Amino acid sequence: MPKLTIDGIPVEVPDGTTIIQAAKQAGVKIPTLCYLEEVQAIGACRVCVVEVEGARTLVASCVAPVAEGMKIHTHSKRAREARKTVVELLLSDHDGDCQICVRNEDCELQDLARTLGIKEVRYQGEKSKRIVDESTPAVVRDTSKCVLCRRCITVCNEVQGVGGLFPQNRGFETVIGPAFCSDLDDVVCVQCGQCGAVCPVGAIVERDQISDVFSALDDPTKTVVVQTAPAIRAALGECFGLPPGTLVTGKMVTALRRLGFHAVFDTNFAADLCIMEEGTELLTRLKKKLVDGEDIALPMFTSCSPGWIKFLEHFYPDMIPNVSTCKSPQQMFGAIAKTYYAKKIGKKPEDIVVVSIMPCTAKKYEHQRPEMNSSGVRDVDYVLTTRELGRMIKQAGIDFVNLPDDKQDSPLGLSTGAADIFANTGGVMEAAIRTVYEIVTGRELPFDGLHVTPIEGLEGIKEASLKLEQCVPEWAFLEGATVNIAVAHGLGNARALIERVRSGEKTYHFIEIMTCPGGCIGGGGQPRFTDNSVRLARIQAIYKEDEGKQLRKSHVNPDIQKLYEEFLGHPNSEVSHHLLHTHYHARTKV
Fold it and tell me: Does residue 126 register a pLDDT over 90?
């Protein structure tokens, strides 16, 4: 436990602690730009330099370990001037159009300049070549705003394991992007948006569709409906200064009504529908395997996360048969809205516009997939991220924080607590188990509060086993069977889990995979900045939402039951397969 002083404050910390970590313990904030706690510490930007007595040069505090007797000065004249020069040099090569930048007032470089008292850009001269990459439907790259912090590279390569971004060229010619300065659409990119979620500036942002949605709302010939993903209600408040994890479900509904949507529905309704379809598919696969002796693909993977599906298509196409054929709740909702709901209100599918509010940039890619048109037209028309909805509400002059609460419309607005937890890593699995276990045994899950605790939390890979006993006659063949389940979040963890399965090291029956760390609550379209403390706050809010509902299992949702009675027939019916199921295909790795 080395003893040292930081700005005259005595500190004692474990050996191996970095200066920036020790300063945090002492209540001293050191400015940073490239640093990501628990993810990246490379000392690339030099904004975090401090002066250490006896050291020949200034030290990058994010990578330098403490030592016994160190005397550190975080805001000495030498340190302050060095930081200021670094930021001024960054600003000299930065597109300074802050007034119209989507990251204005949400920009770490802007905050740094303000904190360091920079009032003018002293260094003028040639600027790096600007590349604007608008090749994907999900994200847009603008190299003129890039500060070469390499956060996106770390997340893409080390956290997600995709490898779409690298430094290209050297020195003044350095560009962060795909190989050979290609567009993102020309390389493997799952469009998860995690690169943009950690970008300190506006170099990578979601493709903005706000004006498209306003245009649809202004069109008197269209009926515009909106669906809201479960993760939105625990994060949207952050766009308006509320703490992470503040539930704003009712205010969100009111805001959407005031924006002019003709009906405000809930993706949670479709999440309950997804459980009915996916749970039935799992049980059907087990029956074919155990009773009929068919060579059926197991384990079965969930298919709710479009970034994960694209990852699988690129890197593990041989395992596509293992993926559930169910569409994601977003796409199921669109198909039902333009068929079942359209018929109820006497509208043609082409006269209904479906807008999704999602925590995920990959949803912008998903809704444009050619398979997603089973209603006869595109099932979902526009996708806005949580951040975009926040901006849209502000543009409309709506005082979000002081809005009264309202409820979603019927019939596509009623949902259960099982649907809420789709937002969290492990939530889809838990929701499925709540229903499948009760269908097979006739009893509720024997867990406290219906929660499957081994698959909760932020551990990268989680697993559990469930023994089936006293099964109802229809499912007697499962009597005494042990069902093995696993959960992974973040594509790097997904890769590790798949390799365990392929090698035979592990045997599972059902696997949930979410693209983003923490699940949808940590999606690439959520308010910045998302670290584990924010993820946990949002997760707890979602569990609170679940526990506060009277209905907590998907199969007891009366509007889902009515949908089957009036329209679909039964789970995995011919109509269901046409509207709610799809197929995926192999993609190249380049």
Answer: no
